[in-house]
Task: inverse folding
């Protein structure tokens, strides 16, 4: 759900993937992997990351009810079932695993793979390139998702400035 600009309803996701999505979405919601909110007569699914979810909700409020969703050049070649499987699998990965997976898929595509995968998965092209470099440069940290010292500083540190 992180890649959806304004979250997605089940019918919007089903229209994009051409497969049944209600049960997988419900399972992801029950496992607290995604958030949902009832807007008008439908549930809209959002990212669990507070900053992304907030942005998605704001986008949803500023857009009309039906969103236009376009296929990327990578997704156009895939069957709807495979698209659904990739999106479900990708949504279950942590930050580092997503980056490495994107890098691997970009490498398989060859020249231009970084931008194609970035568009398909909704990532920054630099994130995909970093994942590819980490994967093939054997710089993968097995015990950590981020480098030591990475991430947001504690709230106490912010207040002391």
Result:
């Amino acid at each position: 759900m992180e890649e959806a600009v304004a979250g997605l309803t089940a019918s919007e996701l089903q229209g994009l993937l051409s497969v049944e999505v209600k049960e997988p979405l419900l399972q992801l919601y029950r496992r607290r992997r995604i958030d949902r909110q009832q807007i008008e007569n439908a549930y809209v699914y959002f990212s669990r990351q507070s900053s992304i979810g907030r942005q998605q909700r704001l986008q949803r409020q500023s857009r009309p009810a039906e969103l236009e969703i376009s296929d990327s050049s990578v997704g156009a070649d895939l069957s709807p079932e495979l698209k659904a499987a990739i999106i479900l699998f990708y949504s279950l990965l942590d930050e580092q695993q997503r980056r490495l997976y994107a890098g691997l898929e970009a490498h398989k595509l060859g020249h231009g793979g970084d931008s194609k995968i970035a568009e398909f998965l909704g990532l920054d092209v630099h994130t995909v390139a970093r994942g590819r470099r980490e994967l093939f440069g054997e710089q993968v940290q097995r015990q950590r998702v981020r480098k030591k010292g990475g991430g947001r500083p504690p709230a106490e540190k912010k207040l002391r400035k």
Notes: Residues 35 and 46 are 5 Å apart (CA to CA).
